[in-house]
Protein backbone atom coordinates (compact mmCIF):
# COMPACT_ATOMS: atom_id res chain seq x y z
CA UNK A 1 0.00 0.00 0.00
CA UNK A 2 1.54 3.28 -1.02
CA UNK A 3 0.82 6.22 1.22
CA UNK A 4 -0.85 9.21 -0.42
CA UNK A 5 1.88 11.57 -1.57
CA UNK A 6 2.29 14.43 0.85
CA UNK A 7 2.79 17.89 -0.53
CA UNK A 8 6.39 18.65 0.27
CA UNK A 9 7.46 22.26 -0.02
CA UNK A 10 10.82 21.86 1.69
CA UNK A 11 13.42 20.59 -0.74
CA UNK A 12 16.67 18.74 -0.17
CA UNK A 13 19.31 18.30 -2.84
CA UNK A 14 21.61 15.27 -2.91
CA UNK A 15 24.76 15.74 -4.97
CA UNK A 16 26.75 12.59 -5.74
CA UNK A 17 28.18 11.03 -8.89
CA UNK A 18 27.59 7.49 -7.59
CA UNK A 19 24.03 6.22 -8.28
CA UNK A 20 24.48 3.78 -5.37
CA UNK A 21 24.94 6.69 -2.99
CA UNK A 22 21.99 8.66 -4.45
CA UNK A 23 19.69 5.64 -4.22
CA UNK A 24 20.71 4.94 -0.66
CA UNK A 25 20.36 8.52 0.60
CA UNK A 26 17.03 8.96 -1.18
CA UNK A 27 15.77 5.86 0.60
CA UNK A 28 17.12 6.93 4.00
CA UNK A 29 15.39 10.30 3.61
CA UNK A 30 12.14 8.94 2.14
CA UNK A 31 10.18 9.40 5.37
CA UNK A 32 11.29 12.96 6.02
CA UNK A 33 9.21 15.97 5.06
CA UNK A 34 11.68 16.88 2.34
CA UNK A 35 11.14 16.64 -1.38
CA UNK A 36 14.33 15.01 -2.66
CA UNK A 37 16.20 16.46 -5.65
CA UNK A 38 19.36 14.90 -7.04
CA UNK A 39 22.37 16.02 -9.05
CA UNK A 40 25.40 14.09 -10.19
CA UNK A 41 27.88 16.96 -10.41
CA UNK A 42 28.57 20.46 -9.08
CA UNK A 43 27.42 22.39 -12.14
CA UNK A 44 24.10 20.56 -12.20
CA UNK A 45 23.76 21.16 -8.45
CA UNK A 46 24.35 24.89 -8.91
CA UNK A 47 21.68 25.00 -11.59
CA UNK A 48 19.15 23.20 -9.37
CA UNK A 49 19.96 25.42 -6.37
CA UNK A 50 19.24 28.57 -8.38
CA UNK A 51 16.03 27.17 -9.86
CA UNK A 52 14.55 25.17 -6.97
CA UNK A 53 15.99 26.90 -3.88
CA UNK A 54 16.46 23.79 -1.72
CA UNK A 55 16.92 24.40 2.01
CA UNK A 56 19.48 21.66 2.51
CA UNK A 57 22.21 20.19 0.31
CA UNK A 58 23.97 16.93 1.06
CA UNK A 59 26.97 16.86 -1.23
CA UNK A 60 29.75 14.38 -1.81
CA UNK A 61 33.29 15.62 -1.44
CA UNK A 62 34.56 14.01 -4.61
CA UNK A 63 32.65 15.10 -7.66
CA UNK A 64 33.77 15.24 -11.28
CA UNK A 65 34.97 18.73 -12.24
CA UNK A 66 33.42 20.85 -9.48
CA UNK A 67 33.95 19.13 -6.12
CA UNK A 68 31.95 19.57 -2.91
CA UNK A 69 34.41 22.13 -1.58
CA UNK A 70 34.20 24.27 -4.70
CA UNK A 71 30.42 23.92 -4.73
CA UNK A 72 30.24 25.15 -1.11
CA UNK A 73 32.48 28.13 -1.88
CA UNK A 74 30.48 28.94 -5.01
CA UNK A 75 27.16 28.79 -3.14
CA UNK A 76 28.42 31.02 -0.35
CA UNK A 77 29.92 33.50 -2.77
CA UNK A 78 26.87 33.68 -5.02
CA UNK A 79 24.73 36.81 -4.62
CA UNK A 80 21.42 35.35 -5.76
CA UNK A 81 21.50 32.26 -3.57
CA UNK A 82 19.16 32.18 -0.59
CA UNK A 83 20.68 30.57 2.52
CA UNK A 84 21.10 26.83 2.02
CA UNK A 85 22.41 24.45 4.68
CA UNK A 86 25.30 22.38 3.32
CA UNK A 87 26.21 18.95 4.68
CA UNK A 88 29.48 17.64 3.27
CA UNK A 89 29.79 13.89 2.82
CA UNK A 90 33.08 12.07 2.59
CA UNK A 91 34.50 8.58 2.68
CA UNK A 92 37.78 9.76 4.18
CA UNK A 93 38.53 9.86 7.86
CA UNK A 94 40.62 12.45 9.64
CA UNK A 95 39.75 15.97 10.71
CA UNK A 96 41.75 17.88 8.08
CA UNK A 97 39.07 17.37 5.43
CA UNK A 98 36.37 18.33 7.89
CA UNK A 99 38.15 21.60 8.67
CA UNK A 100 38.58 22.32 4.97
CA UNK A 101 34.90 21.65 4.30
CA UNK A 102 33.71 23.89 7.13
CA UNK A 103 36.10 26.65 6.05
CA UNK A 104 34.76 26.46 2.51
CA UNK A 105 31.26 27.19 3.76
CA UNK A 106 29.83 23.79 4.65
CA UNK A 107 27.66 23.78 7.78
CA UNK A 108 28.08 20.15 8.74
CA UNK A 109 29.98 17.03 7.87
CA UNK A 110 29.02 13.39 7.65
CA UNK A 111 31.11 10.29 6.98
CA UNK A 112 30.28 7.47 4.62
CA UNK A 113 28.92 4.92 4.97
CA UNK A 114 26.05 7.08 6.10
CA UNK A 115 23.98 5.77 9.01
CA UNK A 116 20.30 6.65 8.89
CA UNK A 117 19.97 7.67 12.55
CA UNK A 118 22.97 9.99 12.31
CA UNK A 119 21.77 11.44 9.02
CA UNK A 120 18.32 12.20 10.41
CA UNK A 121 19.79 13.75 13.56
CA UNK A 122 22.01 16.01 11.47
CA UNK A 123 19.03 16.91 9.30
CA UNK A 124 17.09 18.00 12.38
CA UNK A 125 19.97 20.35 13.20
CA UNK A 126 19.84 21.61 9.62
CA UNK A 127 16.12 22.23 10.00
CA UNK A 128 16.65 24.23 13.19
CA UNK A 129 19.31 26.38 11.57
CA UNK A 130 17.33 26.90 8.37
CA UNK A 131 14.25 27.92 10.38
CA UNK A 132 16.29 30.31 12.48
CA UNK A 133 17.93 31.68 9.36
CA UNK A 134 14.71 32.24 7.46
CA UNK A 135 13.16 33.79 10.55
CA UNK A 136 16.15 36.09 10.79
CA UNK A 137 15.95 36.93 7.09
CA UNK A 138 12.27 37.73 7.53
CA UNK A 139 12.98 39.95 10.50
CA UNK A 140 15.84 41.62 8.66
CA UNK A 141 13.52 42.38 5.75
CA UNK A 142 11.02 43.76 8.24
CA UNK A 143 13.68 45.92 9.87
CA UNK A 144 14.72 47.21 6.46
CA UNK A 145 11.11 47.99 5.64
CA UNK A 146 10.57 49.78 8.95
CA UNK A 147 13.83 51.68 8.51
CA UNK A 148 12.79 52.84 5.07
CA UNK A 149 9.40 53.84 6.42
CA UNK A 150 11.01 55.72 9.28
CA UNK A 151 13.40 57.48 6.94
CA UNK A 152 10.44 58.60 4.87
CA UNK A 153 8.51 59.72 7.95
CA UNK A 154 11.60 61.50 9.19
CA UNK A 155 11.97 63.27 5.86
CA UNK A 156 8.31 64.31 5.87
CA UNK A 157 8.61 65.45 9.47
CA UNK A 158 11.67 67.53 8.58
CA UNK A 159 9.79 69.09 5.69
CA UNK A 160 6.80 69.78 7.92
CA UNK A 161 9.08 71.23 10.60
CA UNK A 162 10.83 73.39 8.05
CA UNK A 163 7.48 74.61 6.78
CA UNK A 164 6.30 75.31 10.33
CA UNK A 165 9.51 77.12 11.10
CA UNK A 166 9.07 79.24 7.99
CA UNK A 167 5.49 79.95 8.90
CA UNK A 168 6.43 80.82 12.46
CA UNK A 169 9.22 83.18 11.46
CA UNK A 170 8.03 84.85 8.29
CA UNK A 171 5.26 87.21 7.35
CA UNK A 172 2.90 85.54 4.92
CA UNK A 173 2.12 88.56 2.75
CA UNK A 174 5.62 89.96 2.24
CA UNK A 175 7.87 86.99 2.96
CA UNK A 176 9.80 89.18 5.42
CA UNK A 177 10.73 88.08 8.93
CA UNK A 178 7.68 88.55 11.16
CA UNK A 179 7.47 90.49 14.38
CA UNK A 180 8.24 87.51 16.63
CA UNK A 181 11.36 86.60 14.65
CA UNK A 182 12.38 90.28 14.49
CA UNK A 183 12.34 90.38 18.29
CA UNK A 184 14.39 87.17 18.50
CA UNK A 185 17.03 88.52 16.13
CA UNK A 186 17.04 91.86 17.94
CA UNK A 187 17.64 90.08 21.25
CA UNK A 188 20.56 88.15 19.75
CA UNK A 189 22.11 91.32 18.37
CA UNK A 190 21.58 93.00 21.72
CA UNK A 191 23.35 90.15 23.52
CA UNK A 192 26.25 90.18 21.02
CA UNK A 193 26.64 93.89 21.49
CA UNK A 194 26.83 93.52 25.25
CA UNK A 195 29.24 90.60 25.05
CA UNK A 196 31.45 91.44 22.04
CA UNK A 197 30.86 95.17 21.57
CA UNK A 198 29.36 94.51 18.15
CA UNK A 199 27.50 97.62 17.22
CA UNK A 200 24.22 97.64 15.32
CA UNK A 201 21.43 99.98 14.44
CA UNK A 202 17.77 99.67 13.75
CA UNK A 203 15.67 101.53 11.26
CA UNK A 204 11.98 101.83 11.98
CA UNK A 205 9.91 102.47 8.86
CA UNK A 206 6.26 103.40 8.31
CA UNK A 207 4.45 103.90 5.04
CA UNK A 208 3.06 107.43 4.91
CA UNK A 209 -0.71 107.92 4.88
CA UNK A 210 -1.26 104.20 4.46
CA UNK A 211 -4.70 104.18 6.09
CA UNK A 212 -5.85 106.89 3.76
CA UNK A 213 -4.34 104.93 0.89
CA UNK A 214 -6.31 101.85 1.89
CA UNK A 215 -9.52 103.81 2.21
CA UNK A 216 -9.05 105.34 -1.22
CA UNK A 217 -7.81 102.38 -3.22
CA UNK A 218 -9.06 99.40 -1.23
CA UNK A 219 -7.30 96.69 0.74
CA UNK A 220 -6.23 94.72 -2.31
CA UNK A 221 -4.30 97.72 -3.58
CA UNK A 222 -2.97 98.23 -0.07
CA UNK A 223 -1.65 94.70 0.03
CA UNK A 224 -0.13 95.15 -3.40
CA UNK A 225 1.72 98.25 -2.19
CA UNK A 226 2.85 96.53 1.00
CA UNK A 227 4.36 93.71 -1.05
CA UNK A 228 5.99 96.07 -3.50
CA UNK A 229 7.43 98.24 -0.73
CA UNK A 230 8.78 95.17 1.04
CA UNK A 231 10.42 94.14 -2.23
CA UNK A 232 12.02 97.58 -2.69
CA UNK A 233 13.31 97.57 0.89
CA UNK A 234 14.79 94.13 0.49
CA UNK A 235 16.44 94.98 -2.81
CA UNK A 236 17.99 98.19 -1.51
CA UNK A 237 19.58 97.18 1.76
CA UNK A 238 22.67 95.07 2.40
CA UNK A 239 22.64 91.30 2.49
CA UNK A 240 23.53 91.32 6.18
CA UNK A 241 20.55 93.51 7.09
CA UNK A 242 17.47 91.82 8.49
CA UNK A 243 14.28 93.11 6.95
CA UNK A 244 11.15 92.58 9.06
CA UNK A 245 7.49 93.48 8.98
CA UNK A 246 6.50 94.35 12.54
CA UNK A 247 3.05 95.88 12.04
CA UNK A 248 0.40 96.59 9.41
CA UNK A 249 2.45 99.13 7.47
CA UNK A 250 5.43 99.12 9.78
CA UNK A 251 8.83 97.67 8.97
CA UNK A 252 11.99 97.25 10.99
CA UNK A 253 15.43 96.82 9.51
CA UNK A 254 18.20 95.55 11.77
CA UNK A 255 21.65 96.56 10.55
CA UNK A 256 24.44 94.58 12.23
CA UNK A 257 27.91 96.17 12.33
CA UNK A 258 26.54 99.58 11.44
CA UNK A 259 26.29 102.76 13.53
CA UNK A 260 24.06 105.80 13.11
CA UNK A 261 26.01 107.13 10.17
CA UNK A 262 25.95 103.96 8.06
CA UNK A 263 22.32 103.31 8.94
CA UNK A 264 21.52 106.88 7.90
CA UNK A 265 23.03 106.35 4.46
CA UNK A 266 21.11 103.09 4.12
CA UNK A 267 17.85 104.71 5.27
CA UNK A 268 18.13 107.57 2.79
CA UNK A 269 18.81 105.09 0.03
CA UNK A 270 15.68 103.16 0.98
CA UNK A 271 13.59 106.26 1.26
CA UNK A 272 14.49 107.53 -2.20
CA UNK A 273 14.08 104.06 -3.71
CA UNK A 274 10.51 103.79 -2.39
CA UNK A 275 9.73 107.35 -3.41
CA UNK A 276 10.81 106.70 -6.97
CA UNK A 277 9.02 103.40 -7.42
CA UNK A 278 5.61 103.26 -9.03
CA UNK A 279 3.60 100.16 -8.24
CA UNK A 280 1.40 98.96 -11.04
CA UNK A 281 -2.07 98.06 -9.77
CA UNK A 282 -4.57 97.04 -12.46
CA UNK A 283 -2.98 99.49 -14.85
CA UNK A 284 -2.83 102.37 -12.33
CA UNK A 285 0.59 103.44 -11.08
CA UNK A 286 0.48 103.80 -7.32
CA UNK A 287 3.15 105.62 -5.37
CA UNK A 288 3.87 105.86 -1.67
CA UNK A 289 6.57 107.32 0.53
CA UNK A 290 8.01 106.14 3.80
CA UNK A 291 9.17 107.83 6.97
CA UNK A 292 12.13 106.43 8.83
CA UNK A 293 13.63 106.60 12.29
CA UNK A 294 17.11 105.40 13.20
CA UNK A 295 18.56 104.42 16.56
CA UNK A 296 21.96 102.97 17.32
CA UNK A 297 22.33 100.39 20.04
CA UNK A 298 24.59 101.45 22.90
CA UNK A 299 25.35 100.02 26.29
CA UNK A 300 23.99 103.19 27.80
CA UNK A 301 20.50 101.88 26.96
CA UNK A 302 19.00 99.53 29.57
CA UNK A 303 17.46 97.11 27.05
CA UNK A 304 16.45 96.69 23.45
CA UNK A 305 12.87 97.79 24.09
CA UNK A 306 14.35 101.15 24.92
CA UNK A 307 16.30 101.04 21.66
CA UNK A 308 13.08 100.42 19.72
CA UNK A 309 11.44 103.24 21.60
CA UNK A 310 14.21 105.58 20.48
CA UNK A 311 13.82 104.47 16.86
CA UNK A 312 10.06 104.98 17.15
CA UNK A 313 10.54 108.47 18.54
CA UNK A 314 12.85 109.31 15.64
CA UNK A 315 10.22 107.94 13.23
CA UNK A 316 7.55 110.18 14.83
CA UNK A 317 9.90 113.10 14.48
CA UNK A 318 10.08 112.34 10.73
CA UNK A 319 6.28 112.18 10.58
CA UNK A 320 5.94 115.43 12.49
CA UNK A 321 8.44 117.13 10.22
CA UNK A 322 6.31 116.33 7.16
CA UNK A 323 6.95 112.63 6.32
CA UNK A 324 9.07 111.11 3.52
CA UNK A 325 12.22 111.70 5.52
CA UNK A 326 14.71 110.11 7.83
CA UNK A 327 15.41 111.11 11.41
CA UNK A 328 18.19 109.84 13.55
CA UNK A 329 17.65 109.44 17.29
CA UNK A 330 20.35 111.27 19.20
CA UNK A 331 22.87 109.16 21.01
CA UNK A 332 22.14 109.54 24.68
CA UNK A 333 22.66 113.14 25.74
CA UNK A 334 22.82 114.60 22.22
CA UNK A 335 20.27 116.87 20.62
CA UNK A 336 18.15 115.47 17.84
CA UNK A 337 19.77 116.28 14.45
CA UNK A 338 17.53 115.65 11.46
CA UNK A 339 19.46 114.00 8.65
CA UNK A 340 17.24 115.55 6.03
CA UNK A 341 15.79 119.00 6.21
CA UNK A 342 12.04 119.29 5.90
CA UNK A 343 10.93 119.02 2.31
CA UNK A 344 7.69 120.68 1.54
CA UNK A 345 7.75 119.86 -2.16
CA UNK A 346 7.73 116.03 -2.12
CA UNK A 347 5.08 114.29 -4.09
CA UNK A 348 2.86 111.83 -2.35
CA UNK A 349 0.60 110.15 -4.81
CA UNK A 350 -2.05 109.18 -2.34
CA UNK A 351 -2.35 112.69 -0.95
CA UNK A 352 -5.56 114.24 -2.14
CA UNK B 1 41.78 -7.28 8.34
CA UNK B 2 40.06 -10.60 8.20
CA UNK B 3 39.92 -12.08 4.70
CA UNK B 4 36.50 -12.37 3.12
CA UNK B 5 35.09 -15.79 3.64
CA UNK B 6 34.19 -16.75 0.10
CA UNK B 7 32.34 -19.91 1.12
CA UNK B 8 29.63 -18.33 3.26
CA UNK B 9 27.34 -16.07 1.26
CA UNK B 10 27.39 -12.53 2.58
CA UNK B 11 24.15 -11.20 3.86
CA UNK B 12 23.20 -7.52 4.17
CA UNK B 13 22.82 -6.26 7.71
CA UNK B 14 19.49 -4.88 6.57
CA UNK B 15 18.24 -8.11 4.98
CA UNK B 16 15.44 -8.29 7.55
CA UNK B 17 14.24 -4.78 6.78
CA UNK B 18 11.49 -5.17 4.18
CA UNK B 19 11.87 -1.51 3.23
CA UNK B 20 15.49 -2.08 2.29
CA UNK B 21 15.05 -5.14 0.05
CA UNK B 22 14.52 -3.26 -3.16
CA UNK B 23 17.54 -1.13 -2.39
CA UNK B 24 19.70 -4.15 -1.62
CA UNK B 25 18.63 -5.64 -4.94
CA UNK B 26 19.82 -2.49 -6.61
CA UNK B 27 23.19 -2.80 -4.90
CA UNK B 28 23.52 -6.42 -5.85
CA UNK B 29 22.79 -5.55 -9.46
CA UNK B 30 25.34 -2.75 -9.37
CA UNK B 31 28.17 -4.64 -7.64
CA UNK B 32 29.18 -6.94 -10.54
CA UNK B 33 29.37 -3.92 -12.85
CA UNK B 34 31.78 -2.21 -10.48
CA UNK B 35 33.86 -5.34 -10.18
CA UNK B 36 33.99 -5.55 -13.95
CA UNK B 37 35.29 -1.98 -14.19
CA UNK B 38 37.89 -2.83 -11.54
CA UNK B 39 39.08 -5.87 -13.50
CA UNK B 40 39.25 -3.95 -16.79
CA UNK B 41 41.15 -1.11 -15.12
CA UNK B 42 43.51 -3.64 -13.65
CA UNK B 43 44.26 -5.04 -17.12
CA UNK B 44 44.73 -1.52 -18.49
CA UNK B 45 46.88 -0.59 -15.51
CA UNK B 46 44.57 2.39 -14.74
CA UNK B 47 45.30 2.81 -11.03
CA UNK B 48 43.47 6.13 -10.79
CA UNK B 49 40.22 4.54 -11.94
CA UNK B 50 40.75 1.67 -9.50
CA UNK B 51 41.15 4.20 -6.68
CA UNK B 52 37.99 6.06 -7.73
CA UNK B 53 35.79 2.96 -7.96
CA UNK B 54 37.22 1.58 -4.71
CA UNK B 55 36.51 4.88 -3.00
CA UNK B 56 32.87 4.86 -4.19
CA UNK B 57 32.38 1.25 -3.18
CA UNK B 58 33.88 1.98 0.22
CA UNK B 59 31.36 4.78 0.76
CA UNK B 60 28.34 2.88 -0.51
CA UNK B 61 28.61 -0.78 0.51
CA UNK B 62 28.43 -0.15 4.25
CA UNK B 63 25.32 1.90 3.75
CA UNK B 64 23.66 -1.08 2.05
CA UNK B 65 24.62 -3.31 4.94
CA UNK B 66 27.87 -4.76 3.63
CA UNK B 67 30.61 -3.33 5.90
CA UNK B 68 32.95 -6.15 4.87
CA UNK B 69 32.91 -4.93 1.27
CA UNK B 70 33.46 -1.40 2.52
CA UNK B 71 36.54 -2.64 4.40
CA UNK B 72 37.85 -4.54 1.38
CA UNK B 73 37.29 -1.52 -0.89
CA UNK B 74 39.05 0.73 1.64
CA UNK B 75 42.04 -1.60 1.54
CA UNK B 76 42.06 -1.49 -2.27
CA UNK B 77 41.75 2.31 -2.27
CA UNK B 78 44.69 2.62 0.13
CA UNK B 79 46.85 0.33 -2.00
CA UNK B 80 45.93 2.13 -5.23
CA UNK B 81 46.70 5.49 -3.67
CA UNK B 82 50.06 4.17 -2.40
CA UNK B 83 50.82 2.85 -5.92
CA UNK B 84 51.19 -0.63 -4.52
CA UNK B 85 52.43 -3.55 -6.67
CA UNK B 86 49.99 -4.66 -9.33
CA UNK B 87 49.86 -8.12 -7.72
CA UNK B 88 48.61 -6.62 -4.49
CA UNK B 89 45.86 -4.76 -6.31
CA UNK B 90 44.98 -7.88 -8.24
CA UNK B 91 44.50 -9.97 -5.15
CA UNK B 92 42.46 -7.25 -3.49
CA UNK B 93 40.15 -6.86 -6.52
CA UNK B 94 39.76 -10.64 -6.56
CA UNK B 95 38.76 -10.54 -2.89
CA UNK B 96 35.93 -8.14 -3.68
CA UNK B 97 34.94 -10.10 -6.78
CA UNK B 98 34.82 -13.29 -4.78
CA UNK B 99 32.51 -11.90 -2.16
CA UNK B 100 29.27 -13.59 -2.89
CA UNK B 101 26.58 -11.35 -1.65
CA UNK B 102 23.55 -13.32 -0.69
CA UNK B 103 20.43 -12.51 -2.55
CA UNK B 104 18.47 -9.99 -0.55
CA UNK B 105 15.36 -12.05 -0.30
CA UNK B 106 17.12 -15.18 0.92
CA UNK B 107 17.00 -14.07 4.55
CA UNK B 108 13.34 -13.25 4.40
CA UNK B 109 12.27 -15.88 1.91
CA UNK B 110 9.02 -16.46 3.77
CA UNK B 111 8.25 -12.69 3.78
Characterization of this structure:
The complex is a heterodimer of chains A (352) and B (111). Chain A has 352 residues and is of the alpha/beta class. Chain A has helices at 19-28, 42-52, 68-77, 95-103, 116-169, 179-196, 210-217, 219-236, 260-275, 304-320, and strands at 10-15, 34-39, 56-60, 85-90, 108-111, 200-207, 242-245, 250-256, 279-281, 284-286, 290-296, 326-328. Chain A folds into two domains: 10-140, Rossmann fold (3-Layer(aba) Sandwich), CATH 3.40.50; 179-328, Alpha-Beta Plaits. Chain A has ten helices and twelve strands. In chain A, the strands form three sheets. A five-stranded parallel β-sheet of chain A has the order 2-1-3-4-5, with helices on both faces. In chain A, helix 2 (42-52) packs parallel to helix 3, helix 7 packs across helix 8 (219-236) and helix 8 (219-236) crosses helix 9 (260-275). Residues 341-352 of chain A have low confidence and may be disordered. Chain B is an all-alpha fold and 111 residues long. In chain B, helix 1 (21-44) packs antiparallel against helix 4 and helix 2 runs antiparallel to helix 3. The relative contact order of chain B is 0.23. The interface between A and B is medium-sized, with 16 and 18 residues.
| pLDDT < 50 stretches of chain B | 107-111
Distance between the termini of chain A: 114 Å
Largest protein interface?
A-B, 16 and 18 residues
CATH class of chain B: Mainly Alpha
* Oligomer category: heterodimer
How helix-rich are the residues of chain A, as a percent range? 40-55%
Q: What spatial form of chain A do the alpha-carbon principal axes imply?
A: rod-shaped
| Secondary structure: helix percent of chain B | 55-70%
CATH class of the largest domain in chain A: Alpha Beta
**What is the domain total for the residues of chain A?**
2
Structural class of chain B: mainly alpha
Radius of gyration of chain B: 14 Å
Major sheet size, sense and barrel closure of chain B: none
The total count of helices of chain B amounts to 4
Number of separate helices of chain A: 10
Distance between the termini of chain B: 34 Å
Please tell me the CATH architecture of the largest domain in chain A by its name. 2-Layer Sandwich
What is the fold-level CATH name, i.e. the topology of chain B?
A: Four Helix Bundle (Hemerythrin (Met), subunit A)
